[in-house]
Specification:
The complex is a heterodimer of chains A (312) and B (415). Chain A is α/β, with parallel strands linked by helices and 312 residues long. Chain A is 35% helix and 14% strand. With 415 residues, chain B is α+β, with helices and mostly antiparallel strands. The interface between A and B is large, with 64 and 79 residues.
């Protein structure tokens, strides 16, 4: 009987080559980070990609705990559902959570809050992140970026070296060969690591479905007060999102496909209120995930520019 | 669902990015917003067709110059497979990026401009795919619309390429020729009415039929230890697990293993993946293994089956592809990373330089410049446990790291 069970499980490791290939690749990368660096950290935003990373990290080191802390750069403009979720997760995992606030960077005069219709704190995060890296002397920052998200992201290496200004030199990246990841750096430099580089949005959702991973409720369809601008649906958040008088408030059934700063993340009309329905919806979608991120629409090179400055 | 990684190779303006854009477009993998962006920018630039390269050339400098500088990874899927395409630059000064893209791919597409035919660059692309032992190579003869879909032109190019194939070292490579027009969409996803003389498959049909089990390199099991897991909790007080990824073959509970380099022997006690136990772990799985005996194992060590030992040596000869702006010279020292293991190495000799256009070798060379390929002899400060690249893709390769800059300066394929 025991023999039979274990044989079946081996089969399971082989049967889903897609999910497995990506999962095993990501675990390999996460273990390389723990082995090659002194002070790694996992950047946690409360979004589905960083939640997926946490599950992968759990798998990588089981039965030991995840051997590095989480870092949340809090813009102060997070959906409350995300923060509640974050606190609960950290407690369950028993890992250390470090929070650094964009508001502090503003108060210290290091960054200036944007004004106007499209004001967002998204870009301001970079300064807070770089300060945190310096403060804690992090030498590797694991992030949930995927190459399918955006065309500048598509150019990113799995181990991506940043100088002590946090800058990405897109024209002079280290070659990455076979499975060999070179994490050699000088003091002051850090490596951004992207274990789920090769995953697509659908891969992430399918994984969350397969693993039965809990995610914040805003990913599922719910009723919300919203208004329309530039063809996108915005959540009415009076203190955070600017809304003109002629932009009428209307209750809609929506969900969020990507969870970032409230000031730059639009909702999508949806009735998908379970993970199965979400996966089905993503599979049929004709709009890319970043289609709802206004910060990428600022120019053809918006993401590349932000990355050069040290943005994740 | 299988994942197929493909590298593209072609010269500047051969239409690699366009071909990938066409694959995305015809498989309906481009979302509406991305397509709109391509339409908008194509129109702004005054083109009378859709410029699909806009979907892949992600950097400002690339769009300015209309060329691909660095590898971009593009994703799409069909009902049967998931595809990852490494869109690698074709320009000669970016050979290192081409090697990079090809190193993680199981199949390759070499583009040839039908108007130009087999050129020196084509030799290089083929040479690199051969050096890296890419099993399935598609030769896409592109821009057929600009030669009136001439069967004769196609046949001439094919014959030229077949002459090139006689020079290759890796004979088991499967080569498939397809006449395409990436711009117009002939024989990429959809069969073309313009080539009634061509009875073969379209590019996508060919890719869809590839069986990955045939393509993935197999060999004997090699388990380099990445990380030692010691929970030190009450529940797992004595747990010592060796985390790593299996290459080559599979490992099972009960297998007699040797720990390299100490050569200590033990047996596999458990194989874990997360909180599940398995009897057997297949290649490419990232598992955690425990052994029957208290054996001293640390990162960089390797578990192999007893009776199936790799070569253990402090000297090695390898074909090195040099990737750094600082040249490699005889007598210089580097860090060699072989899998997850790092040792110091000294360049004993550059035996000869190999011209990747199949024009022969050059002896009495003292230095290698960026993009040079040469046979090099290295002496290591500690032995490593290697296989020949021909027999083992992962355990037969290494990277060379420049200790002054920490850059990955070269890659070696062990002879």
């Amino acid at each position: 009987m025991l023999e039979e069970i274990t044989t079946n499980k081996t089969q399971e490791l082989l049967d889903r080559p897609k999910a497995n290939a990506l999962e095993h690749e990501a675990i390999y990368i996460i273990r390389e980070v723990a082995a090659q660096f002194e002070r790694p950290v996992l950047l946690f935003s409360g979004g589905k990609d960083s939640i997926t990373l946490i599950r992968l990290a759990q798998k990588a080191f089981w039965p030991a705990k995840i051997p590095f802390p989480l870092l949340h750069i809090d813009t102060g403009h997070n959906f409350s559902e995300t923060i509640e979720f974050r606190n609960r997760l950290v407690e369950e995992l028993g890992v250390e959570l470090i929070v650094r606030n964009v508001q502090d960077s503003i108060d210290q005069g290091k960054v200036v809050e944007e004004t106007g219709k499209y004001a967002s704190r998204n870009i301001l995060q970079t300064t807070t992140l770089l300060d945190a890296i310096e403060e804690f002397k992090f030498d590797a920052c694991i992030g949930g970026a995927r190459r399918d998200e955006e065309k500048a992201r598509a150019k990113e290496r799995i181990f991506s070296v940043r100088d002590d200004f946090g800058q990405w030199d897109e024209k002079n990246q280290r070659p990455e060969l076979f499975d060999m990841l070179n994490g050699q750096i000088e003091i002051g430099q850090n490596v951004r690591v992207f274990p789920i580089s090769n995953w697509t949005e659908l891969d992430v959702w399918s994984y969350i479905q397969k693993e039965d991973i809990e995610i914040p409720s805003i990913y599922f369809a719910h009723k919300r007060n919203t208004f329309l601008r530039d063809g996108l649906i915005w959540s009415v958040e009076d203190d955070v999102v600017f809304r003109a008088d002629d932009e009428a408030v209307e209750e809609r059934t929506v969900r969020f496909r990507t969870v970032g700063d409230m000031s730059c993340t639009a909702a999508v009309e949806s009735t998908a209120d379970t993970i199965d329905k979400v996966v089905a919806e993503i599979r049929d979608s004709k709009i890319s995930e970043r289609g709802a991120r206004i910060d990428d629409k600022r120019s053809e090179a918006a993401m590349e520019k932000r990355k050069q400055q040290g943005y994740f | 669902m299988q994942v197929l990684k493909i590298a593209t190779a072609g010269s500047v303006d051969d239409g690699k990015s366009t071909l990938i854009g066409r694959l995305l477009y015809d498989t309906k993998s481009l979302t509406d917003d991305k397509l709109e962006a391509i339409e908008r920018t194509s129109k702004q630039k005054g083109y009378d067709y859709l410029d699909f390269s806009l979907a892949t050339d992600g950097l400002v400098a690339e769009r300015e110059q209309g060329i691909t500088i660095d590898v971009a990874h593009i994703y799409f899927s069909t009902a049967s497979k998931s595809y990852i395409i490494a869109d690698t630059p074709g320009h000669v000064e970016y050979t290192r990026n081409m090697v990079t893209g090809a190193s993680t791919s199981q199949a390759a597409i070499i583009l040839i401009d039908a108007r130009k035919g087999v050129i020196e660059q084509t030799n290089r692309h083929f040479f690199i795919n051969n050096l890296l032992r890419i099993k399935d190579v598609v030769v896409a003869i592109n821009k057929m619309d600009l030669v009136d879909f001439s069967e004769e032109v196609y046949n001439d190019i094919k014959a030229d390429f077949e002459r090139l194939m006689e020079k290759r070292d890796y004979q088991d490579q499967k080569i498939t020729f397809i006449p395409v027009s990436a711009l117009k969409g002939d024989n990429v996803v959809n069969r073309s009415e313009n080539t009634p003389w061509y009875s073969g498959q379209t590019l996508l049909e060919h890719l869809e039929e590839l069986n990955l089990l045939d393509i993935y390199n197999t060999g004997t099991p090699r388990f380099p230890v990445q990380y030692v897991i010691r929970p030190k909790t009450d529940e797992f007080h004595d747990f010592r697990g060796f985390a790593g990824k299996i290459y080559g073959g599979e490992l099972s509970v009960g297998d007699e293993v040797a720990v390299l380099p100490s050569m200590t022997r033990s047996k596999i006690k458990n194989i874990y993946f997360y909180d599940q136990e398995y009897q057997t772990a297949p290649r490419r799985s990232s598992v955690t293994i425990t052994l029957e005996d208290e054996v001293n194992v640390s990162r960089g060590d390797m578990l192999v089956k007893v009776g199936d030992l790799p070569t253990i040596d402090k000297q090695l000869t390898a074909i090195v592809s040099w990737m750094d702006s600082t040249s490699l010279t005889t007598g210089s020292k580097y860090m060699v990373q072989h899998g997850v293991n790092k040792v110091l190495a000294k360049v004993d000799a550059i035996e000869h330089k190999i011209h990747p256009d199949y024009s022969g070798i050059e002896e009495n060379v003292n230095a290698l410049q960026m993009n040079d390929i040469a046979k090099v002899r290295l002496r290591l400060n500690k032995p490593i446990f290697y296989d020949r690249f021909k027999e083992h893709r992962t355990n037969g390769s290494f990277i060379m790291i420049d200790g002054r800059t920490n850059n990955t300066a070269g890659v070696g394929f062990i002879e």
